[in-house]
Amino acid sequence: xxxxxxxxxxxxxxxMQRKGVLWCVVTALFVxxxxxxxxxxxxxxxxxxxxxxxxxxxxxxxxxxxxxxNTAWFMIAGYLCYFIxxxxxxxxxxxxxATVIAIAAIASLTLELFxxxxxxxxxxxxxxxxNVICGGLGGLFAERCRAYLATADHRTRRCPTHRVTADxxxxxIDRLSRQGSHHHRITEPHLTERIHDVQPFGHS
Length: 204
Hints:
This protein is mostly helical and 204 residues long. The protein has helices at 15-31, 61-84, 93-116, 125-158, 172-197. The chain has 2 domains: 9-158, no CATH class; 169-197. Helix 1 runs antiparallel to helix 2 (61-84), helix 2 (61-84) packs across helix 3 and helix 2 (61-84) packs across helix 4. The protein is elongated and about 65 Å long.
């Protein structure tokens, strides 16, 4: 038996339909940062690339908003990529997360390469590093959820809920009464012998 569903869509869709929906959502997440396409000019701006990660990080409000947006964006993408990755049932957690990281890295490098050919865009290795890390965190969270639900299902199967029956043969009170009756039957002959040993008053 497979672990319980982590996605709400599992309840309504078949596995094939669910995977198709996830592919559409993940594709939309990766394509949306390309807009607006009006910035695309067709010739590269190699001199605009910031090759060294975290070297020219600005702590302005706009920069922090951009970092926060990329963080949330790629964490969600990494979480969903975990469920559409090409995998086998025997894949280890490390291999699964590494696959998600590879997908996030390819997507992020593609986005930054597109920005090289755009005006008003600054391709940066800082964005690539943040996107890869956040994609890996999203995949790790998905793996933890899967492992937790699989463990919970395993415990449920090992410890099923027993129904309470009204069969008197299995009742503790009935067993105690039978034990008490058996005890009285055992001690009754001894009581009879003691009564016979007592002689009536006045006889010697």
